[in-house]
Amino acid sequence: MARFGRWLGKNGVLILGIGVIVYMYIPNMIVALMSFNDSSEHRNLYSFQKFTWDNWLNPCAPAGMCQSVVTSIEIALLATIVATTLGTLAAFGLVRHRFTGRSSMNLLLFLPMATPEIVMGSSLLALFIAAGLGGQLGFVTILIAHIMFCLSFVVVTVKSRLAGLDSNLEQAAMDLYATESQTFWRVTFPLVFPGILGAALLAFSLSFDDFIITNLNSGQTVTFPMYVWGAAQRSLPMQVNVIGTLMFIIALAIVIIGEVGARRRRKLLAVR
Questions:
Q1: Are residues 83 and 39 in the same domain?
Q2: Are 229 and 250 part of one and the same domain?
C-alpha cells in the first residue's frame, strides 16, 4: 500500500493530465464514430445502428450542406486575413510605442472578448440597420462582424508573443550593421511568427464556429453552424459528423506538423 502511495504521488499529475485529455476528446471520438453510422432507418440519430461508408463517400448528399461549409470557409479565411493583419499591426503599435490613451486602448481590446455574444451580435445588427444595411444583411455583414470579434483575440495573442521577445536580439542585429528592415524581417518577424500563426488559427476557428453573432447578422446567408442548427430541428444528417471529423483531423495535423517542425529547428540549432 505504501509503495502504491509513493507511485501515485510520483505519477499522479501525469495520470490526471491523461484523464483530462481523454475527457476532452471524448466528444470528438463520438463525432468520428457517428460519421460511420447508418441511421437512415432509425429515428434515434445518436444511437449507433450499422456501419457504413456512405456518409464519407457522399459528404454532400444533404442539400445545401457543402455550400454552407464553403461559405463558412470563405468568411473564416477572409476574416482571418484581415483580422490577423490589422491585429498584428495594432499589437506592434501597443507594445513598441507609447502614446496618449494606450492604457485605455488595451482595456477596450478586452471588451469584445468579455462581452456576451448575444450583446455583440445585437449591437452589430443595430449598427447595420442604423447604417442602412438592414435590408442587405448577408455575406458582407457577417464578414464585418467576424473581423470585429476576431480582432481582439489576434491582438492579445500577438501582444503576448511580443512581450516575451528579447529586445537584445534586435539590438545585436543592428549592432552588426543590419538595417531596420533587415532586422525586422530576419530577426523580429521569424520570432513573432509563431504567435501570428497561432492568432490566425484561433481567428479562423472562432469565425468558422460562430453561430450567435452570425445568426443575428446573416440575412439569407447560411453558414455551416446555422445549417447544423436548422437541420437539427428536423433530422440531422450523419454527413455533419463527417465535416466535423475532417475539421478536427485538419486542425490536429496542423498542430502536429508545427510541433515536428519546431523540434527539427531546435535540433538544428543544437547541432550548430
A1: no
A2: no
pLDDT tens digits, residue range 94-151?
888 777 777 777 778 888 888 888 988 898 889 888 888 777 888 899 999 999 889 9
Sequence-ordered alpha helix ranges (H) in 115-237: 117-130, 139-163, 167-175, 180-183, 189-209, 212-216, 224-232
Average pLDDT over the chain reads: 83
Reading the block at residue 201, the C-alpha cell is 488559427
Residues 73 and 97 in one domain: yes
Cell of 113: 472578448
Please count the structural domains in the chain.
2
Tell me the residue range of the domain where 243 lies: 1-62+237-272
Give the pLDDT score at 96: 80
Q: Are residues 15 and 32 in the same domain?
A: yes
Amino acid at 17: G
Together in a domain, 218 and 86: yes
The predicted-structure confidence for 151-170, as pLDDT tens digits, reads as follows 999 998 998 888 877 777 77
Considering only CA atoms, which of 84, 60, 52, 27 is closest in space to residue 204? 84
What is the pTM for the complete model shown? 0.83
Q: Is the dihedral of CA 68, 140, 195, 269 positive or negative?
A: positive
pLDDT tens, residue by residue, 235-272: 778 888 888 898 888 888 887 887 787 777 777 656 65
Q: How many CB atoms lie within 10 A of CB 138?
A: 15
Q: Which of 200, 210, 246 is nearest to 81 (CA)?
A: 200
What does the pLDDT average to over 78-90? 93
Q: What is the CATH number of the domain that holds 145?
A: 1.10.3720.10
227 and 249 share one domain: no
